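Lecture 7 notes: from sequence to structure.

We start with a single chain of 72 residues. Read the sequence below before looking at the structure.
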Amino acid sequence: MLVVDDLTDTGKTARVVREMLPNAHFATVYAKPAGVPTVDTFVTEVSQDTWIYFPWDMGLAYVEPIAKDHKG
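Now the structure, written as tokens:
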């Protein structure tokens, strides 16, 4: 099984996945130093204090409902 994540930071998520899927190969695009030991493969190592802005994180956190409360 292959598990892919965009980023490993502290490695906490990877450790949980390892417990659930001990034979899985864990790959990530970006890895911070604290998380490197928890993954099998990564593309780029970045410093622990780096913040990466992903396109899917840039949207609004709250969107106003299209319709108000409807009683029908």
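The chain has a mean pLDDT of 89. Keep this in mind for problem set 3.
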